[in-house]
């Protein structure tokens, strides 16, 4: 190519053939797409610098010629790019790579479609299995409920049968007022006993005389009363236990609360403070008079207490403590008398 002689970068990459690696082919086209030419296009100058009349005129001519050079260079680059584009489009190696990329893209698209289709089919299958499972569970639950209903109905029929049987067997006992058995007692027994207990009672009473039947009925009534009393006591016990547990939980929650120690030190300092006192003759005299009045009051109280005890004829002898105050210390005796009172 005649354009390679004007390239700034040398050497020029080779076009190669069909065995050339695609990386080298890309390098070849990248070189020509970024082609830089050293060609100046001075032959196309419009103005001759030697004919300039002044330096300013010469500089103007240079600017005009530079503009023409730039325009010619752009035209040259456009021509080279057009040529490279045409070669690139017709290059069988580039076409093969494009087809490979297109096939790879189509393959990925089909794989994505198949994956999505498989996921949808799996979701549909799982939903169908879940629906069938729920239907089977609902069916089994309905069958179990129906079976349970039949069993309860059968038990109710048997219970009614045993109650009717007990009423029939106990009819002679109720009719005889000597035994003190009423219809209410029979109905109470029927209401409190279950089917097995009723059946056992009927079997025990069947074929017995009236006295034996009355005894068995009385035992059943006593057992019923005992059962009711036990249930009542059990309910009371559980109620008390519940109250104890509730109180225990409340106490535990209070004890587990974190104490507020933010002001503990301030409170300690406040307690350690002593009351300030001003020593003066007046205050000393007041303190002496108040202590004397207190001693007199205490002495009068002791005299009253002694006279009352003497009038009642009771001698009171309080034990003297080991560390008793001496008589010469009136304040100590006053405090001792106050403690006795």
UniProtKB/TrEMBL annotation:
Residues 301-312 have a biased composition (Polar residues). Residues 97-154, 276-331 are annotated as: Disordered. InterPro entries: ZUO1-like_ZHD (IPR054076), Zuotin/DnaJC2 (IPR044634). Residues 111-142 have a biased composition (Basic and acidic residues). GO terms for molecular function: Hsp70 protein binding; ribosome binding. Residues 2-95 form the Zuotin-like zuotin homology domain. Residues 289-300 have a biased composition (Low complexity). GO terms for biological process: 'de novo' cotranslational protein folding; regulation of translational fidelity. This is DnaJ domain.
